[in-house]
Amino acid sequence: MPRRRAGYPESVATRGQRRSAADFLPPDVDDLDQLRGAAAGCRGCDLYRNATQTVFGDGAPDARALLLGEQPGDREDVAGEPFVGPAGRLLDRALAEAGIPRERTYLTNAVKHFKFVPPERGKRRLHKQPSAAEVSACKPWLLAELRLIRPEVVVLLGATAGKALYGASFRVGDRRGTVFPLPEIEGVEGVAVATVHPSSVLRADDRDAAYAAFVADLRVVAEVLAT
After folding, report:
1. How far is residue 130 from each of residues 70, 159, 162, 199, measured CA to CA in Å?
2. Angle, CA 153 vertex, CA 145 and CA 63 arms, to 5°
3. DSSP string covering 138-200, please?
4. What does the alpha-carbon distance between residue 77 and residue 61 come to, in Å, rounded to a whole number?
5. What is the C-alpha separation between 199 and 114, in angstroms, rounded?
6. Residue 155: which H helix or E strand, with range?
7. pLDDT at 123
8. Region 129-142: what's the mean pLDDT?
9. Who wins on pLDDT, 8 or 15?
10. Domains (ranges, CATH) in the chain?
């Protein structure tokens, strides 16, 4: 009989069993603060081992728009809040230009822990794309957020966000700037709009053009919210 690891539920104590956030999700949760508190202790994948803390979603509990990114970055990992680094500041500016008040949105990520490449001495930690297994392990938190908030529109910020909800075949280029139905999620009705992650705008060769295209996508979201 394998020994149960301290702090782990019995369902994830045995090596070889697939873990996920579902093992840490409270039953019948009906409050975002309760959900956030439970996520702080998530050990559903191994990313928690090197991350500073869980970075849960944040924003209006009755938000009409939920913006879904990939994972927290270096600044977010330290602060414990999503989208507070350079990409978050660019997102703030783009939302304002598109006519979407950030305080009326909810921002979260497909993966709640920072995955990064071990830094060289004195260097900033650089993000590493989460694996499909890590995205899948974290998905119960995302689904719980969606069921509690029930947004009218989900903004998919990049490929990882799209794959978290639609599977591995999702391509941003196929759906960018268009409105399409959310996948079937119990208790949730609404639509999605796909665009790039704001960090890709910061990396673009022609940053002005990339930013203008990003704002144009967010204006599609604003049009949905205006109807």
Report:
1. 8, 11, 13, 15
2. 55
3. HHHHHHHHHHHH--SEEEEESHHHHHHHH-TT--HHHHBT-EEEPP-BTTB--EEEEE--HHH
4. 22
5. 15
6. strand 153-157
7. 76
8. 97
9. 15
10. 18-226 (3.40.470.10)
| Listed residue (41, 48, 49) closest to 9, CA to CA | 41
Q: Which amino acid, residue 86?
A: P
SS3 124: coil
pTM confidence score: 0.90
What's the angle, vertex CA 220, arms to CA 161 and CA 174, rounded to 5?
A: 50
11's tokens: 């369902």
Q: If DSSP states are collapsed to H, E and C, what string results for 61-104?
A: CCCCEEEEECCCCHHHHHHCCCCCCHHHHHHHHHHHHHCCCHHH
46-57: buried (b, 16+ CB within 10 Å) or exposed (e) per residue?
ebbeebbbbbbb
Place of tokens 């500016």: 93
Enter the tokens of residue 187. 């208790």
Give tens-digit pLDDT for 161-191. Answer: 999 999 999 999 999 999 999 999 999 999 9
Distance CA 11, CA 17 (A): 8
Query: 151: closest CA among 225, 58, 47?
Result: 225
Cβ–Cβ contacts within 10 Å for residue 218, how many?
Answer: 23
Angle at 133 between CA 70 and CA 173, to 5 degrees: 45
pLDDT on residue 1: 31
The span from the CA of 223 to the CA of 66, in Å, is: 15
Nearest to 44 by CA among 74, 73, 76, 11: 11
The structure tokens listed for 27 are 């039953």
